[in-house]
């Protein structure tokens, strides 16, 4: 990128181009998951590892909430916390993800213990939480813009998994339905903020790099799953082994 300052429309187009090239719906593991090419143990491994990402989103958002300077911004990020943590026990996105792992036959206490995580999952998720905690507010908000592309992947995920796996039900996938409306709302707010506040070439480069970083986080999580669980499997010591949850 040069020192040329992009118009808000050109900046948005550049952000969308990053998603078109780098979003993890293009990853081979994602394609295999939704095309019905994985066995139950491999799907379990995906859900178990993804739980750590889902459970870390509220911590990520809380760290940003504490730094936000206006009531409007704090109100927006407080809503995101409620979406994921819920307002009552058993509600919210994290609780719904546990219903998914329950439905796949995983022991809930084992999932929540994080004992079976792949090292690559742990490192990727913690890098994302640290990024949001330490970078500028503008970069932290920009890193959430993968939500621009999530409705497409959610639709693929639900249709593909229901159509290809007899051990998956609509109840198992209940996490995803609210995200079809929450994610567009979240991304619209974040995109408007970035369009307004990324005014210099340096700021614009920072937000583009933040979105690339977030895409890399999601891609690397699937890299770890693909390496560990797709033939030839190379499951690292201590990580989840499907035969222990049969």
UniProtKB/TrEMBL annotation:
Keyword Manganese found: no
Keyword Repeat carried by entry: no
Pfam families: TENA_THI-4 (PF03070)
Superkingdom of the organism of origin: Bacteria
Keyword set, alphabetical order: Oxidoreductase, PQQ biosynthesis
Gene Ontology biological process terms in this record: pyrroloquinoline quinone biosynthetic process
A molecular function (GO) term: pyrroloquinoline-quinone synthase activity
Reactions mediated catalytically: 6-(2-amino-2-carboxyethyl)-7,8-dioxo-1,2,3,4,7,8-hexahydroquinoline-2,4-dicarboxylate + 3 O2 = pyrroloquinoline quinone + 2 H2O2 + 2 H2O + H(+)
InterPro entries cross-referenced by the UniProt entry: Haem_Oase-like_multi-hlx, PqqC, PqqC-like, Thiaminase-2/PQQC
Pathway: Cofactor biosynthesis; pyrroloquinoline quinone biosynthesis
Leading EC class: oxidoreductase
Domain (Thiaminase-2/PQQC): residue spans on this chain: 13-223
Record EC number: 1.3.3.11
Family membership: Belongs to the PqqC family.
Role according to the record: Ring cyclization and eight-electron oxidation of 3a-(2-amino-2-carboxyethyl)-4,5-dioxo-4,5,6,7,8,9-hexahydroquinoline-7,9-dicarboxylic-acid to PQQ.
UniProt name for this protein: Pyrroloquinoline-quinone synthase
Lineage: Bacteria, Pseudomonadati, Pseudomonadota, Alphaproteobacteria, Acetobacterales
């Amino acid at each position: 990128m040069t020192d040329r300052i992009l118009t808000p429309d050109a900046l948005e187009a550049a952000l969308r181009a990053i998603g078109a090239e780098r979003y993890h719906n293009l990853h081979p593991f994602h394609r295999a998951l939704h095309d019905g090419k994985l066995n139950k143990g491999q799907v379990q491994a995906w859900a178990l590892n993804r739980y750590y990402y889902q459970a870390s989103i509220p911590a990520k958002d809380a760290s940003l909430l504490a730094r936000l300077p206006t009531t409007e911004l704090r109100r927006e990020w407080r809503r995101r916390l409620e979406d994921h943590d819920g307002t009552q026990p058993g509600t919210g996105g994290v609780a719904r993800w546990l219903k998914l792992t329950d439905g796949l036959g995983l022991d809930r206490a084992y999932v929540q213990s994080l004992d079976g995580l792949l090292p690559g999952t742990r490192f990727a998720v913690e890098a994302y939480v640290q990024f949001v905690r330490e970078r500028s507010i503008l970069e932290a908000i920009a890193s959430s813009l993968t939500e621009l592309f999530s409705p497409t992947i959610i639709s693929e995920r639900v249709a593909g998994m229901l159509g290809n796996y007899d051990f998956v039900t609509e109840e198992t996938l209940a996490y995803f339905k609210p995200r079809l409306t929450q994610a567009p709302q979240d991304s619209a707010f974040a995109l408007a903020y970035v369009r307004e506040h990324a005014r210099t070439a340096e700021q614009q480069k920072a937000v583009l790099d933040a979105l690339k970083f977030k895409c890399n986080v999601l891609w690397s999580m699937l890299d770890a799953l693909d390496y560990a669980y797709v033939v030839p499997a190379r499951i690292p010591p201590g990580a989840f082994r499907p035969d222990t949850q049969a």
